[in-house]
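Subgroup meeting minutes
Present: P.N., E.W., G.H.
Scribe: E.W.

1. P.N. recapped why we're keeping a running log of single-chain structure predictions: easier to compare across weeks, and new members can see raw inputs and outputs side by side.
2. G.H. added today's entry (155 aa).
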Amino acid sequence: DVCSSDLKLLLPFSNFLPKEGSIAKALKKEVIICIVVVIFVIIGNIITQNYTRKSVETINAKLIELKEKLSKVNKDEEGLKEAVKDIQEDWDEKQEKLAFYIEHDELEKVETQIHLLSGEVEAKLYEDAVPETDKCMFILEHIKDKTALNIKNIF
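Output recorded in log:
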């Protein structure tokens, strides 16, 4: 009899076979684990989105302030250099944390724009520095939009 011989072969492994009722328990555990993982992912996403939003808003506010200083007729050269230095220091601090979950290419674009902006201010090419602030703000907004959890980014 083929069936009885198959059962005799499986007998040593019977401890590993699921028992009745244990399948439902195993499925419940898997569902609970999946729900917990999804909750952790959502919480992590909310935390990273909030940090990204706050970081972008902080840097953008400083860039707007710098742009206003650049647009003045009587420019305070030391004040401009200090403002750019402050932006660079703030960006360096925020970039370290953002690099954990944002593409490095995007962060490098902001870094490049800040360095270009710094160079323009150092060379006293204030008219050329204004577009650099706009580009930097655009890239920062792009990063914020790209990391936002919305239907457009999911699909």
